[in-house]
Amino acid sequence: MMQSNVEANTPRSPVPRRKTPPRGGFSSGAVLPELTDREHEVLGAVIDSFVRSATPSGSRKLVREYEFGVSSATIRNAMADLERKGLLMHPHTSAGRLPTDLAYRYYVDHLMRRRPMDAERQRVRAELEDAYVGGVDDILAKAVRVLTLLTGELGLAVGPVLAGATLRRIELVRVSAEKVLIVLTLESGLVRTVYVDVESVLPRETLQALSSALSERLSGDTLREITRTLRQRLGDLHLDAPGAQEMINIFVQGGQEIFEWARTESDIHLGSPTVLAGQPEFTEGDRLRSLLKLTERRELLAEVLGDRKSKGAHVTIGQEHGQPELDSLTIVTANYEVGNLQGTVGVIGPTRMPYDKVVSLVDWTSEMLTRLTP
User: Fold this and answer.
1) What's this model's pTM, rounded to 2 decimal places?
2) How many CA atoms lie within 13 A of 242 on its CB side?
3) Is 15 among the domain residues?
4) Long-range contacts of range 258-261, CB-CB < 8 Å, 24 or more positions apart?
5) Kind of pairing between the strands at 179-186 and 167-174
6) What pLDDT, in 10s, does the model give residues 214-244?
7) In terms of domains, do 253 and 271 share one?
8) What residues contact 93, with CB distance under 8 A and at least 6 apart?
């Protein structure tokens, strides 16, 4: 997707030098080369131009577009030095130069300045406040949609791992003669359900009595603690209601399986991949199909996103992901909190990305999610 907010004949100022990394812990630990002030300015200009136009930059183009105050020969020499340092590359001999993944890393760690984004922030706030009444899953789905819309990248959100969630109550519902639905209401309005098989039809009165007794004995603790102590909590529970003991035995003997999902499950919400179809990186059918296949691999995304525990925005670029399927992509995320739980929100898109805009919006969205989820 082409992005430009500058008139064609208006020279731009080169990116000013930043001596220390910005807030947010972006650095991947990559060894970055030392740059002169001139190389620093030229690299920022190449990245800015490529993000806006999706076309390589030559020295003459940069001199026309940016206020360097030097000749194109000087800029050409700086670009050659940047190429030797692994920050620029030639797509082919006659073309200009493109930034490498290392260049984007240098930009994020040392050059990037976050945009104010006041109007977009207000849009995020309004959209999430509107979705607040629907619970955590609804507000995460809205966060994904608004990030997709405002950034032009593929929005994503990972729900919190629920092992640390506090149980508020249990309700048992008969869905057929052989199945009972266990409805677990957790803190912050989270709800999860589990189906179990039963050998006999359980009357509604029995299920109501069981719901009350189980809620009394299990609510108020985390799912992790409940799973660990289930036998002790329910071992002496006896109800006279018909069929009640069968259901109690299911909890006592199969409790580990009933609550197993809480240790590992994290719901992943994704925006529509079609938002990326118009970007130059995905005009070829094979690359778009690869992206669509990636969105179906929820376990891969969960693995990549699972270790992002640092505060503030987290940016991984290209091969930093350690997964070949993600070599041409950037993922920008930030963590949000739901009570004592933590989840992740962000975007995924091509490495040619307006990082200053995206990082600002992702960080703000995570902050708003933390504020709005009790």
Assistant:
1) 0.79
2) 7
3) no
4) 258/182, 258/194, 258/196, 259/223, 259/226, 259/227, 259/230, 261/162, 261/192, 261/194
5) antiparallel
6) 999 999 998 888 988 888 999 889 898 888 9
7) no
8) none
